Structure formats: C-alpha cells, structure tokens
Amino acid sequence: MNQVTLLNGRSVPSIGQGTWYLGDDPSVRKNELAALRTGIEAGMTLIDTAEMYGSGRSENLVGEAIASYDRDSLFLVSKVLPQNAGRKRMRTACENSLRRLGVEQLDLYLYHWRGSIPLRESVEELERLKNAGLIRDWGVSNLDIDDMEELADYDVKKHCQVNQVLYHTGSRGIEFSLLPWMRERNIRLMSYCPLAQAGTLKQGLMRNKTLLEIANAHSATVSQIMLAWNIRGGDTIAIPRTGKAEHTLENRAAADIVLTEAELQAIDRAYAPPTRKTWLDMQ
To answer: What radius of gyration do the chain's Cα atoms show?
Structure first.
C-alpha cells in the first residue's frame, strides 16, 4: 500500500481503520475484532480511535484486537475531548486511553475539537505528554483555517502532524483554503468519513451516475472509487470505518486503484471543487 510521510519523517499507510461506533454492540464484537485484525494483516496498520467513542469502548475493542501483534508494527491514534484538553485533565485522559488500549505510548494524540480551554494551553499540554513519552507526536481534529493559523503561533517546534477533518467526494470545502494552507506546511490531512457518514448525501453518492460508471470501468465499487479519489494526492490518510472483514478488504483494495485524469475531471464536474470559503462539514 502507498505510504504517507508525516512531518516527523514516519510513514503510515494511506488507508487506515476508523473505529467510530465500533465496540458499542456486544453482539457484533467478534465481527468487529475480525475486521480490525483483517485490516492489520492487510497492511492497514494505522488505527484511529478516541476516548469519546463509546465512552472508551472503542479503545477497549482496539486494545483487544491488537493484543497479539507486535506493538512496533502498529500506528495508534487516539483523541482527547475538549473538556479534558487542559493542564488539569489531559494527562489523566491520555493515561486512561493508554490503559484501555493496553499500550504504553500513542503514536499520535489528537485534540478532538476546539472547546473553551485556550488553544495555547492545549498545545502546551500536548508538548508535555510528548516530552513525558506518553505520546510520540500530536495533532488536531476539526480545526478550520483560522484555528490552524492561531495554532501555528503556539506550535513553535512545528510538532503538529495532522488535522483530522471530514472530507469526501461530496464534501470538498476544505480544498479552498484549509487544505492548501496545510500542504504548504506539510501538515497531513487525515480524512474521516471518507465514504460519507450516512443519510441522503451518502445515498446520493452511491447512486451517482458518474461514480457508478467509473466504478464499472475499474471493476470496483463506488465506495472504492471514493477512497481512491480521497487519497489521490499522495498526502492524505483516509480512515474508513467498518465492522465487517469483507468490507475491510474492499477498503484495502481501493488503495491500488489509480484514477485517470479524465476520471478525476468527470468527478469534478459531478462534484465541483469549492469556489469560496465554507465552514467545516461534520457529516
């Protein structure tokens, strides 16, 4: 699988595994564990989770799934809630995530979204966790360009590795200003919900004539075309979520699809790039 190089020089797979909603339903736990392990075996060794997901249940699930694997072969990402992102709570929150995951260190710890705690304080605490060895590196999630510009004033060592935001074929607003800003500074995009979250938007994408035609040309699914499109630039990490092993392998196969320039232009006509600044999408 193609690799994405982070600012710190580490390489991670272009398609990893998301875990939002995984771990919530005990009746499908075996299937979810199998899905995660199937992904690891297929090279999807980056696993993203968060203390918010199921109030820690997703982290517990990941911890069980990875227990038999060499820790050094994995790239583990978790996220701290806004209310825990200050000097009074961040270390405890991080230690709780480590305990649930059954590991001694996170590869990447993200500030989940911006809350009332000053951004400078959150950056200082992330740096303290890095210096203490609890995390190797840190990043952010759901921060728009004004937030990122402010963050740059505090991140004097340039340690912010990624900004994890929603991005998919039908939601391209970040391409106007946020994504170019990040690329200029080698801060990688980690794309959540790359297959769209749910509801009418996802249904429309899956039935789109252009995407269906391109999928047929590649003997692929629309979901695979959306993932191939998502990582087309070589500097984006997509983290689709699934609790089924067969879907995990489908996601993995998308990394091998190379879209032609004509196909990319056709997608642009179906889902036009932004021409103005818009707020970050959350769905």
So the answer is: 18
